[in-house]
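Anyone up for a design puzzle?
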């Protein structure tokens, strides 16, 4: 499987180079044809190993950032990027169980200790068979019965303390998994700290996969997924990620170009989408240009923000500037799933940032929608969007004042890692968003 995945990654890399060359030759027809061919390659889905797909996805993002790329090319590249990440980022590992059983299945899933993904299991072949002697099953079963009496569940905590998110069933799962590794791989009882560290990280990674799936369905109950452990000697805390989660680090702490803003939106089904909004200003006649693939509710919130900007441009000191410019707007989804949600305030800030040629504060995400008269609309919940923002590297968030009542329910790690700025009017949000 690893070979198939590497082959796909190399094909995508070659396709990317050919597209870039076509763009540099200013041959949009050839570049668009290559983008279509690339989309067809990805749609076949020869492999679902996320680690290689994440790398391939990062390669595709370079296409969208080329200033010579047409809107069609950027749209197709974004579609391919979403398809790559969508295979595993939005997939629910326990989907068949959820369809087959009642709502009580969540209690059963929460009691699972370890999730081993299929892409980490080597394909069965003669190459993995040993040429040495083996044990007959009767002897091996007796050895396992004897080892079952040995209890190593407290060994991990001789060297490490678990982080604040590893509690209850999570801590018990990690202890039991580490104990199993020690008994199977070190039946003589001889092991060192670094070997235990490796088993702790494997145990936390496998248990976190289960919690991440539960969080997609019941965020409030299962939001504590930032697993970590602390070295007893150095008191240094180490975070344990899930390698296939592509969303991590999607929000850059480096300054974005003027007209670019991060936003997080949530729909009625509590699905969360992380977007980077991009606005470009060109001489024109006051037109708003959007890609045909933009989701309906996103486009509607953009149109409301643009209508508010047009009707209040004199108050904002723009005079007739808007009527003399054309705005090209794109919404780049960063986490692999299309969400029908609204984010009018972020669109408004992105447009003003582009018009004034001023950058937004680095690491900032903007939440909230607005009406054509400038009234702020809060979100149904800020718990899920802010958790997604933190997981992807955000350092600051603009939040509607109407959502302040939900502040007390935010997880501890969100409050610690994210600077929250509440606003009640669009102009206040704009002042706090633009870099000084």
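Challenge accepted. My sequence:
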């Amino acid at each position: 499987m690893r070979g198939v995945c590497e082959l796909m990654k190399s094909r995508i890399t070659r396709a990317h180079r050919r597209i870039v060359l076509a763009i540099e030759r200013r041959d949009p027809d050839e570049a668009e044809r290559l983008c279509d061919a690339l989309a067809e390659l990805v749609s076949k889905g020869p492999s679902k190993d996320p680690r290689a797909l994440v790398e391939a996805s990062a390669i595709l993002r370079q296409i969208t950032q080329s200033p010579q790329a047409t809107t069609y090319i950027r749209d197709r590249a974004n579609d391919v990027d979403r398809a790559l990440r969508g295979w595993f980022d939005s997939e629910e590992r326990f989907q068949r169980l959820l369809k087959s059983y009642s709502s009580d299945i969540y209690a059963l899933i929460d009691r699972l200790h370890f999730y081993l993904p299929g892409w980490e299991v080597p394909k069965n072949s003669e190459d993995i068979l040993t040429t040495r002697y083996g044990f007959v099953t009767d002897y091996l079963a007796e050895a396992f019965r004897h080892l079952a009496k040995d209890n190593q569940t407290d060994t991990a905590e001789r060297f490490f303390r678990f982080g604040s998110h590893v509690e209850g069933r999570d801590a018990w799962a990690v202890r039991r998994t580490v104990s199993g590794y020690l008994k199977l791989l070190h039946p003589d009882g001889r092991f060192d700290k670094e070997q235990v560290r490796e088993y702790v990280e494997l145990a936390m990674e496998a248990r976190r996969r289960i919690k991440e799936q539960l969080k997609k369905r019941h965020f409030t109950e299962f939001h504590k997924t930032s697993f970590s452990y602390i070295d007893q000697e150095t008191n240094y805390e180490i975070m344990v990620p899930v390698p296939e989660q592509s969303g991590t680090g999607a929000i850059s702490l480096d300054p974005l170009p003027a007209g670019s803003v991060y936003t997080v939106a949530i729909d009625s089904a509590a699905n969360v989408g992380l977007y980077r909004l991009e606005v470009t200003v060109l001489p024109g006649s006051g037109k708003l240009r959007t890609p045909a693939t933009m989701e309906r509710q996103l486009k509607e919130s953009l149109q409301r923000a643009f209508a508010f900007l047009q009707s209040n441009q004199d108050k904002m000191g723009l005079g007739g500037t808007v009527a003399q410019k054309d705005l090209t707007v794109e919404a780049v989804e960063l986490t692999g799933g299309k969400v029908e949600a609204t984010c009018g305030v972020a669109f408004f800030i992105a447009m003003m940032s582009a018009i004034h040629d001023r950058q937004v504060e680095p690491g900032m995400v903007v939440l909230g929608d607005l009406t054509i008269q400038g009234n702020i609309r809060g979100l149904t919940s800020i718990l899920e969007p802010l958790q997604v923002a933190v997981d992807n590297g955000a350092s600051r968030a603009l939040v509607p004042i109407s959502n302040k009542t939900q502040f007390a329910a935010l997880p501890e790690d969100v409050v610690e890692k994210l600077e929250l700025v509440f606003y009640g009017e669009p102009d206040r949000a704009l002042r706090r968003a633009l870099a000084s």
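A detail worth pointing out: The chain has three domains: 2-89, 95-239, 260-433.
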